[in-house]
Amino acid sequence: MAISFKRHTLDNGLRLLVHEDSTSQLAACNITYNVGSRDEHPDRTGLAHLMEHFMFCGSKHIPDYDTPLQKAGAINNAYTSQDLTQYYIVLPALNLETAFWIESDRMLELAFNQQSLDIQKHVVIEEFKETCLNRPFGNLWSTYTDLAYEKYPYKWMPAGKNPSHIEGVTMDIIRDFHSRYYSPANAVIVVGGPVPFDEVVRGVEKWFGDIPARPKPDKVFPEEPEQSCRKVLRTHGNAPYPMLVKGWKMPPRLHPDFYAYDLLSDLFGNAQASYLYKKFVAKSQLFTDISMTVSGTSGPGLLSIVARPADGTDIEAANAALDDFLYHDFAFGESFSYDLQKLKNYNEARLLKEEVKLENRTALLSVEETLGDAEDLEQALQYYNAVTEEQIRRVWTDSVREERENTLFYLP
User: Fold this and answer.
1) Which of the four, 182, 235, 245, 388, has the lowest number of CB atoms within 10 Å?
2) Residue 1 within any structural domain of the chain
């Protein structure tokens, strides 16, 4: 997997990556700020997500964010994760400067309008109610992460823990958050399309170069203690049927073992050929669906199983059978090279598919540069192919242990 790019850093610390693609008539502009829900105080969660919404309320010289983009033929959106906030604009390459104009103005001089803040607070609170409270299983994952983490600020999701945290946000709080995190040195801008590198550098220097430099915010998070005791939570939620979620801590995204964990999760829980599906859906029929996932986060991640017990099956009995398999019955054969190679081939196809769209390429570069180093993208396929059976066995033994398990019974 190789996405070509050239790099430039402005004097104020803003990092620019340019991916030239002469086959496209469109240009993509991604700007990612190194701030997510993990940067929030436990008593004031949801702030990064609220800031994302507020960024669309206009800036000093551009009071209506959407109109100039519509005139330029652009589409745009944004998202907030636990680690970062990303904004993107896709538009005809001839109108690329419009994206620079808008993004630079809201980085430098966002319009701190009280009416706009009140509206967005209401929107975010209603979104929380819709997605986390009223939607079936809406708070399943946030309940699970709150159980799994002791101290690390992945205990809550970007939506926040409680709407009251958003209700209490004042203009001074939102202004301070923008000043602290929405600075050139805490951002990465990636531009892709039929645009020469030197031309993009001139445009970015023109629109972003005069934004004053500010120190990077401190990134000091509580250390997550090593888990030595199994944790179990039984809770009732908005759900038409029970769900079982269980998992173990795993290393961060940039750890050398991450690719082994990712392939391990595929071996056990990716589609009908996986070990868990064949054992518990196709054969014993204790579950109607079961999967295993990894969280590719900057901080400590989770290797998790999500499973739906079959109708009429007692969830406690299904969990006991799953535990017996994981901790007592299962053993890797002398060789599982065939299964592992299939998954390496699958990952190669997935990585290549992700490169098809221009905006996907710029988004990947933006995220990778924000959380680590964009050059690592070129090595991703090599890292997957280098994973050995011995490494898979080791990470399984290191992580999948009863005393480190977190189990959530999510009941109707």
Assistant:
1) 388
2) no
Q: How many other CB atoms are there within 10 angstroms of residue 101's CB atom?
A: 17
List, as own/partner pairs, every contact residues 39-44 make where C-beta atoms lie below 8 angstroms and the sequence separation is at least 24, other chains included.
39/153, 39/181, 39/217, 39/219, 40/153, 40/156, 40/160, 42/153, 42/155, 42/156, 42/161, 43/165, 44/165, 44/168, 44/169, 44/173
Terminus-to-terminus CA distance in the chain, angstroms?
Answer: 44
Q: Which residues, listed in sequence order, are joined to residue 259 by a DSSP beta bridge? A: none
In a domain, 179, yes or no: yes
Residues 11 and 185: their CA atoms lie apart, in Å, by 9
CA distance 118 to 166: 10
Whether 304 contacts 268, CB under 8 Å: no
Local structure of residue 256 (DSSP, 8 states): T
Same-domain status, 204 and 241 = no
Query: What global pTM score does this model have?
Result: 0.95
Q: Helix, strand or coil for residue 200? A: helix
pLDDT digits (tens, 9 = 90+) for 185-235: 999 999 999 999 999 999 999 999 999 999 999 999 999 999 999 999 999
How many CB atoms sit inside 10 A of residue 151's CB? Answer: 12
Q: What is the pLDDT of residues 140-166, one digit of tens each?
A: 999 999 999 999 999 999 999 999 999
| DSSP helix/strand/coil, 252 | coil
Q: How far is CA 7 from CA 4, 26, 190, 193, 197, in A?
A: 10, 20, 9, 15, 9
Domain carrying residue 392: 231-411
pLDDT at residue 334 above 90?
A: no
